[in-house]
Design brief:
The chain is of the alpha/beta class. It is 30% helix and 26% strand. Strands 3, 4, 5, 6, 7, 14 and 15 form a seven-stranded mixed sheet that branches. Strands 10-9-8-11-12-13 form a six-stranded parallel sheet, sandwiched between helices. Strands 1-2 form a two-stranded antiparallel ribbon. It holds the Pfam family ADH_zinc_N_2.
């Protein structure tokens, strides 16, 4: 089969087509004939040599796919050959065929395009776990999300709105702020034109937000804490601005903050399976009813993976980028 990989870390141009054997599903796995693969920031970081795949995972990039079940592994009874599925995978998505744990697959409902289906797993799993499970989001609370027009940001805005949250996002331009409001954010702050800490205070009447979903890290953390209401929760899911932060722990204590975070790729198969069940029960009905759809930015052919990565790194995209296999 054809896949896209790289021999050595580098810029987007290191990505190239390669011919590799079609993998065989083991117990509890399915082999999926891939229709589309989502392109995510971790793919870019992996290509740069800063995010190696966990032990046992495919070195081929790609953490989410859609397609049709080609072969069932031993013990798999919940899917049928030819059935349309999307899946969270630990690697291998940029290929004509990809292995997925059956427990990490979700059925693609009628009315959901396979391009859209491939754009759901990574962001939906990430947002559900970090906002609703780690962040304990509840109806009526306020959520601040950085990167409001990213795949994660758009999903957080839409999912938050569906579950009764008031979502404030930050974006890098007035145009992106306007798009974020169309997508579902209640408020959008152009962080290049104003201080987001002051704007959050103004929007919330000085109270602050209940949760911050942070993809920046670094010096944003101390600023994020200034945005939190008492008993607020700060959830870190990426450190694009730096892995180290200096904060005032006396403020954390006196305002009773909770600081947490997670990475998804290295979590156990059992954990991801349980998370998939939570999503299937709580968020997937919105997808089945047509009420939740990913925001789609651009579609590239598999052989154009380098261009897809270049678009993501340029930061001009709004929503999800996918590869058509």
């Amino acid at each position: 089969m054809t896949a896209v990989g790289f021999d050595a870390p580098g810029g987007p141009d290191v990505l190239r087509p390669v011919t590799v054997p079609v993998p065989r599903p083991g117990p509890g796995e399915v082999l999926v004939k891939v229709a589309f693969a989502g392109v995510n920031r971790p793919d870019v970081v992996q290509r740069q040599g800063k995010y190696p795949p966990p032990p046992g995972a495919s070195p081929i990039p790609g953490l989410e796919i859609s397609g049709r079940v080609a072969v069932l592994g031993e013990g798999v009874t919940e899917f049928l050959p030819g059935q349309a599925v999307c899946a969270l995978v630990s690697g291998g998505g940029y290929a004509e065929y990809c292995l997925a744990k059956a427990a990490h697959c979700l059925p693609v409902p009628e009315g959901l395009g396979l391009d859209e289906a491939a754009a759901l797993p990574e962001t939906l799993f990430t947002v559900w776990h970090n906002v609703f499970e780690r962040g304990y989001a509840r109806d009526g609370e306020t959520l601040l999300v950085h990167g409001g027009t990213s795949g994660i940001g758009t999903m957080a805005a839409m999912l938050g709105k569906h579950f009764g949250l008031t979502v404030i996002v930050t974006c890098g331009s007035g145009e992106k702020c306007a798009r974020a409001l169309e997508i579902g954010a209640a408020h959008a702050i152009d962080y290049k034109a104003c201080d987001f800490v002051e704007e959050v205070a103004r929007i919330t009447g000085g109270r602050g937000v209940d949760i911050v979903l942070d993809m920046v890290g670094g010096d944003y953390v101390a600023r994020n804490l200034k945005c939190l209401a008492p008993d607020g929760r700060h959830v870190t899911i990426a450190v694009q601005g730096g892995a180290k932060a200096e904060i005032n722990m006396a403020v954390v204590m006196t305002r009773r903050y909770t600081l947490t975070g997670s990475t998804l790729r290295a979590r156990s198969d059992a954990f991801k399976g349980l998370l998939a069940q939570e999503i299937l029960a709580n968020a997937w009905p919105l997808v089945e009813e047509g009420e939740l759809r990913p925001v789609m930015d651009a579609r590239f052919a598999l052989g154009e993976a380098a261009a897809a990565h270049a678009r993501m790194e340029a930061g001009d995209h709004v929503g999800k980028i996918v590869l058509e296999i």
